[in-house]
């Protein structure tokens, strides 16, 4: 799906936990996430901290969208 | 000759520990046979013996790749086997990645022959087909009976250090290895024969299938996200509560398009996941953990992003065929463009 959308020219940031899979399917901008059943959350945190964590991840994704890439890029911290 | 000693790797599901709710099971070692090892034993007759089975939850393995790999390697080493078998993983993505990862590690670091088995669309295939023998299976465990004879036959050959034939003879997925062989007819004759068959519209088998490189050029970066419309897409199966379009929990045949215009936050009362390939408890309690509408809505208010697109697109990425996923995205990508969306955040579980 990432590739089919990106084929149109729209940049896509793929947020997922298993980065090797994202690399094989051909995502170009990848932001690693927390865990498979809750990529953008962590149920062991209290709701306020959990939302902060989610904000941080999305900020990273937005930054990835503003970053020019020529090849597959994993946006670590 | 003494029996070939085999260590077998399986996931929590095939070990009978549990489904997705147990996918975080840590690696454990059990003497002898567990689950599908029984079928292997029957196929091995007296030639080989499964001396131990290593079990690990699929999510645990994938979320803790390095650690899980090290622990499982230690467990395998203890038994000093002649052969290592992982799976079959069929079309279970995380299981396939785990089988491939650990097989490659056992082969490279312990110097033991390895074999695994999975469906050609399993992501583990593309990651590891060059490194290890992967027997081709059907897409579900219903094909176990067909898979075991092929897997056990290749396994015995590897265990006995016999010469391994071509992928089509042995039933494994091509590793891209080329071998020089002698043919009855010379190349020019074979090429012309093939051309004539093609012109006649007859079936022919190429001697050199072209690899399928399908890289897509990265979309141009957005200059300023605070000025554009961003859309959310997910393969994590988030749907309005009740799953109105009945998106399948695996092997999805459709996608959904749903309005989020009226939502600032997804809750257990409004949204849930239809995905059958991960433990749904956390997403059902708060779907923002998969589809982060709450934060994007905040960012919209704070002016960090221009606008959150009023629809999100969703499907279940669980055993869903590549062909279907491509078709879905090709369809809705057109709508995204028509609606003026300039960037997409796609989340996966």
Main attributes?
heterodimer, A: 77 residues, alpha/beta, three-stranded parallel sheet, 3 strands, globular, B: 349 residues, six-stranded mixed sheet, four-stranded mixed sheet, 11 helices
What does the model show?
The complex is a heterodimer of chains A (77) and B (349). Chain A is α/β, with parallel strands linked by helices. Chain A has helices at residues 2-6, 19-25, 47-65; strands spanning 12-16, 29-32, 73-74. Chain A has one domain (2-74). Chain A contains three helices and three strands. In chain A, strand 2 (29-32), helix 3 (47-65) and strand 3 (73-74) form a beta-alpha-beta unit. Chain B is globular. A six-stranded mixed β-sheet of chain B has the order 2-3-1-4-5-6, with helices on both faces. In chain B, strands 9-11-7-12 form a four-stranded mixed β-sheet, with helices on one face. By secondary structure, chain B is an alpha/beta fold. The mean pLDDT of chain B is 94. Chains A and B meet through helix 1, strand 1, helix 2 and helix 3 of A and helix 2, helix 4, helix 5, helix 9 and helix 10 of B. Strand 1 of chain A pairs parallel with strand 12 (343-347) of chain B.
Order of helices and strands of chain A: HEHEHE
Helix and strand composition category of chain B: alpha/beta
Radius of gyration of chain A (Å): 13 Å
Biggest sheet strand line-up of chain B: 2-3-1-4-5-6
* Oligomer status: heterodimer
Note the beta-strand portion of chain A.
Answer: 5-15%
